[in-house]
Design a protein that fits this description.
The structure holds 2 protein chains of 2 kinds.
Chain A: E1 4-7, E2 11-12, E3 17-24, E4 46-53, E5 56-63, E6 72-78, E7 83-91, E8 96-105
Parallel strand pairs in A: 2-8
Antiparallel strand pairs in A: 1-3, 3-6, 4-5, 4-7, 7-8
Chain B: H1 3-23, H2 30-41, E1 46-48, E2 51-54, E3 58-61, E4 65-71, E5 81-88, E6 95-101, E7 109-114, E8 120-128, E9 133-144
The chains are: A mainly beta, B alpha+beta.
C-alpha cells in the first residue's frame, strides 16, 4: 500500500516563499539487482513526480533508478493566493498515486 | 577463533567479493556521462558557476545520499532557472534526476536523496531562461556502495 507524506505550511503571507516537502513510499527497484539464483529483478521505479497549484504545474521531476527508495523531494514556491497543491507520482507497473494539501494566504 | 575457522572465514570473504565483482553490470563511463550531458545541453557551452551542489564528500551508505542543488538566480519572469539536471559518472546509468522549475518558485533549490554505486563525481547542471547552462561538480567517496552488487 503506497502512502505519501506531505509537508506544506497551512498558512502564509502573500508573496512568501514556502518550502514543500514530499515523501512517497516506494521500493524504487533499480532493475540492476539479482536474486541469489541469478535472475535479474525487474525495474520498478517511480518515473515522474508533478506538483500543481490550483491546476498550474509548479514543479516536475523525472526520476531515474539513482533516486533512493521512498523518493523525497523538497522544493520552493512563492504563494500569492489561497489554494490547493496537488501531487502526483507515476511509475512502472501502472503505479499512480495522488495527494493534496491546502494553504491559506493572507 | 582457531586457525582453521579463520582461514575458512577469509576464503569465504574472498569468494563473496569475487562474486560481487562478476555480478556487477557495466558501469557508466565518463563518455556516457558526457553524452548524457550533451543530450540535455545540445551544443551550448556549459560554464562553471552559479550552481551549488551540496552533497557529503564522504558517504557511508550509498543507498541514500542526501543532496541539495541550489542556483544563484533572482527567479523573476525574465531571469529564472528552467531546469536542474543531475548526473553521475559510475552508476549503471548516467542520469540521476531532472527537475523542472517554475518562474514562481521564488528560490531555485531542490533537495532529494540519491544512490551512488561507487566513489565518483556527481554533476549538477542548471538551464537558465536566457538559454545558458551552468554547472557544479563534487567528488564523493562512498564506503558502502548502492544497489548494483547486491544480491537479494
Amino acid at each position: 500500500m503506497a502512502s505519501a507524506l506531505i509537508n506544506v505550511p497551512p498558512k502564509a503571507k502573500r508573496g512568501d516563499v514556502i518550502e514543500i516537502k514530499t515523501l512517497m513510499s516506494h521500493i524504487m527497484e533499480t532493475g540492476y539487482r539479482h536474486t541469489a539464483s541469478g535472475e535479474a529483478v525487474p525495474r520498478d521505479i517511480i518515473t515522474s513526480f508533478i506538483c500543481r497549484f490550483n491546476g498550474n504545474e509548479i514543479f516536475r521531476a523525472d526520476l531515474f533508478p539513482a533516486i533512493a527508495a521512498n523518493p523525497f523531494f523538497s522544493f520552493f514556491t512563492s504563494v500569492t493566493e489561497s489554494g490547493k497543491f496537488e501531487f502526483e507520482w507515476v511509475g512502472d507497473k501502472g503505479f499512480s498515486e495522488t495527494a493534496s494539501a491546502s494553504i491559506s494566504v493572507e | 577463533m582457531d586457525q582453521s575457522t579463520r582461514r575458512e572465514f577469509f576464503a569465504l570473504a574472498g569468494g563473496a567479493t569475487a562474486l560481487a565483482v562478476t555480478l556487477r553490470p557495466a558501469e557508466a563511463t565518463p563518455a556516457m556521462l558526457a553524452s548524457a550531458i550533451r543530450n540535455v545541453v545540445g551544443s551550448e557551452p556549459v560554464k562553471t558557476g552559479k550552481v551549488k551542489l551540496d552533497i557529503p564528500p564522504l558517504v557511508e551508505n550509498g543507498n541514500t545520499v542526501p543532496m541539495t542543488v541550489s542556483v544563484d538566480s533572482p527567479m523573476a519572469p525574465e531571469d529564472h532557472v528552467k531546469s536542474i539536471h543531475v548526473f553521475n559518472e559510475k552508476n549503471p546509468q548516467p542520469n540521476i534526476g531532472n527537475f523542472h522549475l517554475s518562474p514562481k518558485a521564488g528560490r531555485a533549490q531542490v533537495s532529494t536523496r540519491i544512490r551512488l554505486a561507487d566513489s565518483q563525481k556527481v554533476v549538477a547542471i542548471a538551464k537558465l531562461s536566457d538559454g545558458t547552462f551552468w554547472s557544479a561538480s563534487v567528488d564523493v567517496v562512498v564506503t558502502l556502495a548502492a544497489c548494483t552488487d547486491e544480491v537479494i
